Fold this protein.
Amino acid sequence: MERIGGETMVLYSDLRERLEAFEAMRNVASLPGEFVTKTVKGSIYRYFQTILPGGRTQIYIGPDNEQTRSLMEARETGKLHALADEKMFQRLAAQIMAGDVMPIMPEMARIVARLADCCVFRAGGVLVGTTAYQILGPHLGVAWEHSSRMTQNIDLVGDTTRVAVAVPNLPAEAPAAIDSLRMGFFPIPRLSHNEPYTSYGVRGKSIRIDLFTPARRGATAPVFIRRLNATATPLNYLDYLIESPLKAAMVAGLPCLVNVPQPARYALHKLIISQERDATSAATAREDLLQAKDMITLLKEDSPGALELAKVALAKRGSSLLKKVEMACRQGEIEL
């Protein structure tokens, strides 16, 4: 790994802070759409027409009068401000990338940005897997080695019980958000055709989106997540991974704010799952160990206390997990 220059890190911090402010102030001005009119019995009524995750929607504004016209003018002014903000984000991202920061690939970035627009992260969704690892690099001030940072999979975790603190109970429809990309995503059937879809792919491409949720009491059947209106595959240890996630800026041509795991928990989780891969996933297990080693090496220099806290939290879940971590460290020649 290589350290990112101080000037570039200042730009990243600026981008992240501005994205947080933008997310906090999102309103109708941020929605793509237009005002339309309807005439009913000789009277004119105003509506705002937009495409939300659930499909095309017309929001009733009111009768055509001075008040609704003032609201329309205010929306147009807000829209100009939102566009100006987006251009500023793009300029900052371009400056960060000029500082030798590898961006998320365009197709992947487009998907993540669309999920953000549809409030998936505000509703509690957390990016995990290699996409999160890529995003955590600039957040931690480093550029990862090329061999361990490229992916065409987007892994999204939604918890069935945890509600976003800042915006509780905010709905977001993950499948509709994916469909709205118009990139040709189709549901990937599971081994049992009686079970609902939890993954989406594009014909002729390796790009894929997987939805996961923490397993409860050993459950293996797909779980419906009401807040995301989506079904996800339950996986062990995800509750540990996504507890108290961080907000980080995705560096790309179209940047956005996302939720990612705490780096120390990400590293320990990678060590654990590397020991649970079967023989057909040996390459993935090696990637798990490589990412964990990079993250642990960095944290031991910059934030050893975070590693200790993550280990303490893991120990509370049972000694068997600590044994998996120890085995993985021996296998990957990792000093924890």
In short: Residues 107 and 207 are 8 Å apart (CA to CA). Residues 262-336 form one domain.
